[in-house]
Amino acid sequence: MNNKSSLKYLKWVVFASLGFYNPMGLIDSKLQKLVMFILILWGLYKSTFKNNINIQTCYPKYAYFLIIIGICISTFMAAVFHDDQSPLISFQASLTYLLPYLLFYILMKFQVPVEQVEKFLIFMGIVGICVNFLNMLTAPHYLFGISKENADLSRGVVRVRTTIIYICFLFFYSIPKYQQLRSKKWLFLLILSYLFIILWVARQYILFATILGFFLYMKRLTFMKKIIFGIALWGASYVVVNEVPIISNLIQESYEQKEKNDEGDGDVRVQAYDFYCNEYQTNTVTRFLGNGIPSIGNSLWGDSYETIIRYRGTLAADIGWGGFYFYFGVFATLGLAIMFIKSIYINKKDRFKYLNYLLCLYFLTSFAGDTIISMEGITALMIFMYIIWAPNSSCLIRK
After folding, report:
1. pLDDT for 21
2. Which of 171-175's residues contact partners 24+ apart within 8 Å by CB, and which partners?
C-alpha cells in the first residue's frame, strides 16, 4: 500500500473510532463498531496477506504481544467462568477492544509516513476544537453527539463530552513548535487548545495538562528565564484560581466531593477500584487472566453485570487501569504499562519529546478515565505510539 492510500486508511479509522463525531445523533454505537470492525479487519488482511514488508525496527514487541494475548485469553475466561456467555459471544464482545489495539501492528506494516500522521493529528485537534465549540453554542441540543434535555452547568460552563484527545495532542505539539519558530500561528493554537482543555472542565485533564505543559515549556528556557516564567505563572495562577469562575467552581466542587467522601463510604473511584480489582473477581484464575467483557443484553452475566453497576454506580470507564485489569488480567495490564514506560523513556530527538508529556498525560488520566478502554482512546494511543516506534520514523536516536 502506498503512502497516500495508507494515510487515507488511517483517516477513515480515526473518524470511525469517533463515530464520525455522530452528527445530530444519527450514528449509533452498533453502526460505529461495524464500520470500525470492517476497517480494522480489512487493514489486517492487507497488512498480513498483501504486504511483504517485515517490521525491521526495534519496538516493545513482547509487551505488545502480552496485550494482544491477554485480551484473547480473557475471552475464554468469560466463557468458562461466567453464566451463559458462550465463547462466540465473548469473542464478539472483546472485538471492541482487541481490534483497536491491533491498529499498531497494521500501521507498523503499512509504514504510514510519520510527518503526515502528525499533520493529520493537528487537523484532528482543530476539528475537535470546532466540534466542542459548536456543541457549546447549541447545548443541550448538540450538533455532534446525543442531545440532552438540559445542559449541565454544574461546573460553571456547559459540559461537552466530545473527545478531547486530539486537542491535547495539539496542545503539546504546539509548545515546542512555538518556542522554535516564534510563530503567531503556533501561539494561537497553543492558547486555543489549552483554553478548550479548560472548557472541557475535567479536573484531571486541566491539572495534568497544566503541569506537564509547564515542564515541557520550561525545558527549552535558560535558568534565568525559568525563574521569571515560574514567578509569572505562579502570579497568574493565583489570579485565575480566585477570579475565573470555571476554575473556582472546579476547586469548590473538589472540596465538596471530599467532604461527602469523608462523611460517606469514601471516594467513589476508590470504591470502584476495590469492586473491580477485588470484590467482583470470580476466582484466582480471573485475577491473573482477566474476566473478559460482559456482553450486556446477550448473556446472563452481561445482564447481571449491568444490574450491579447501575445499583452501585461503579463504571469501568471511570477507572481505566482498574477496568483494563478486570477485563484482561495481569499480563495484558503489565504489557500495556511496559509499552507506556518504554515509549516515554526511549531516547528521542528533541522535536519528538512532546510525545513524552502527551503519553504521561494519557497514562495518568487513565487511572480515572476510559482512554485505554474506549475505542477512540485506544485508537489515538496506538497512533501516538506508532509515531515513536515506526520503522520510517526519525523520532528515535538509534545507536
Report:
1. 84
2. 171/125, 171/197, 171/209, 171/213, 172/212, 172/213, 172/216, 172/354, 172/355, 172/357, 172/358, 172/361, 173/118, 173/121, 173/122, 173/125, 173/354, 173/358, 175/213, 175/216, 175/217, 175/354
